[in-house]
Amino acid sequence: MPGKGIAGVSGQNALIEVKAMLNGFRPKKHLGQHFLTDEYIAKRIADSIQFNNGILLEIGPGKGALTNYLHKKWAEKLWLVEIDHDAVVRLNNDFPRLIPRIIEGDFLKLDMQSLFKGDTLSIAGNFPYNISSQILFKVIEASKQVAQLTGMFQEEVARRICSPPGNKNYGILSVLVQTYFETSYLFSVPPSAFMPVPAVNSGVIRLVLKKGFKLQGDERFFKTVVKTAFNQRRKMLSNALSGIAGKSGISKKYANLRAEELLWKDFEELAAELSEKIKSAR
Question: Which listed site, 11, 27, 105, 160, has its alpha carbon 20 to 30 Å from 180?
Answer without folding.
Answer: 105
